[in-house]
């Protein structure tokens, strides 16, 4: 079965197209040459179970070679450390091989004017799956529309970062022990942060979730996310008091103010930067079971003395990302 594959490539709903899954479970909808499913909680739990299995794979075991003979291409038009390395590590830990293009805007044929579509059509001839990071919203959907192999959205500008959302929800489940009935504070650059946008979509799948938005005025969460949450019956509110929000929440999800999204308006960047910082005062306000998360990299929005607190989950969060991406690659290439 040949088809394109797109993980969360759509802006308002998240879906996966996979050419390699031969048997459709009940939460799949098969259509022509594509198998697609919406991410409901049963599907998410199934993915998380596979990720748990990935945590327990021993080196040089038969399970560590399940992707032997498969080749993954990573094409990154924007800088990335964790996403690119975790995908490449995930592929190699499962026995597969990797072709990589870092900073593809300068060090690929894009620098000569080649279109994204032509790049995808070319690279798909060399590999079994493409992981794409792009600076434009909707780029992964464009790539999936013309590709004959899976395209995994590794972040598209200020749009979506679906695999990050999966690992974030997985982290919350592992750290807090539940997903229903939680309170989450999303802090920082909410207008340009693709991680918080995708996380908000996934949190809306769970019951009795409340989301707090804490951000400088210039980077408030956009209305499309607020409208989506409202349409799903998710309770949310905006606040300017991080201490109060931290005292209420199970998760404080901090993000950096993204200088690269401000263009020439550095005055606005400087105005927003440093307004909300997770430090010892925030830790004192937080509940003992709560955690601090961050998609990384951080600048000064979490002080380094927070790292020693057991509630600082962001480096564990990065490690959970490896297991989630191992699970994604397994499911896309060899199925359940």
From TrEMBL:
Pathway annotation from the record: Pyrimidine metabolism; UMP biosynthesis via de novo pathway; (S)-dihydroorotate from bicarbonate: step 2/3
Location of the Aspartate/ornithine carbamoyltransferase carbamoyl-P binding domain: 39-173
An annotated GO BP: amino acid metabolic process
Keywords: Allosteric enzyme, Chloroplast, Plastid, Pyrimidine biosynthesis, Transferase, Transit peptide
Cell location: Plastid, Chloroplast
Family under the similarity heading: Belongs to the aspartate/ornithine carbamoyltransferase superfamily. ATCase family.
NCBIfam families: asp_carb_tr, PRK00856.1
Primary role: Catalyzes the condensation of carbamoyl phosphate and aspartate to form carbamoyl aspartate and inorganic phosphate, the committed step in the de novo pyrimidine nucleotide biosynthesis pathway.
Designated name of the protein: aspartate carbamoyltransferase
Organism: Medicago truncatula
């Amino acid at each position: 079965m040949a088809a394109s594959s797109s993980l969360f490539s759509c802006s308002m709903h998240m879906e996966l197209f996979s050419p390699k899954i031969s048997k459709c479970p009940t939460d799949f909808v098969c259509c022509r040459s594509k198998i697609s499913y919406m991410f409901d909680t049963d599907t998410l739990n199934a993915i998380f179970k596979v990720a748990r299995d990935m945590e327990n794979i021993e080196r040089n075991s038969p399970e560590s070679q399940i992707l032997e003979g498969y080749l993954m291409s990573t094409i990154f038009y924007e800088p990335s450390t964790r996403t690119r390395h975790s995908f490449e590590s995930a592929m190699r830990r499962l026995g597969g091989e990797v072709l990589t293009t870092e900073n593809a805007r300068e060090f690929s044929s894009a620098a000569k004017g080649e279109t994204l579509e032509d790049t995808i059509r070319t690279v798909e001839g060399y590999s079994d799956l493409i992981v794409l990071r792009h600076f434009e919203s909707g780029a992964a959907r464009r790539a999936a529309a013309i590709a004959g192999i899976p395209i995994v959205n590794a972040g598209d500008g200020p749009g979506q970062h679906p695999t990050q959302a999966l690992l974030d929800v997985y982290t919350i489940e592992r750290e807090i022990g539940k997903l229903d009935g939680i309170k989450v504070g999303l802090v920082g650059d909410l207008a340009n942060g693709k991680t918080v946008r995708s996380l908000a979509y996934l949190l809306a799948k769970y019951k009795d979730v409340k989301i707090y938005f804490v951000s400088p005025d210039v980077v408030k969460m956009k209305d499309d996310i607020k409208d989506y949450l409202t349409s799903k019956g998710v309770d949310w509110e905006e606040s300017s008091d991080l201490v109060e929000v931290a005292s209420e929440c199970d998760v404080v999800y901090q993000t950096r103010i993204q200088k690269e999204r401000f263009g020439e308006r550095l005055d606005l960047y400087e105005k927003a930067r440093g307004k909300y910082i997770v430090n010892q005062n925030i830790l004192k306000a937080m509940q003992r079971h709560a955690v601090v998360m961050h998609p990384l990299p951080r600048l000064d929005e979490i002080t380094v003395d927070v790292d020693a607190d057991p509630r600082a989950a962001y480096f564990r969060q990065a490690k959970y990302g490896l297991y989630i991406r191992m699970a994604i690659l397994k499911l896309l290439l060899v199925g359940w």
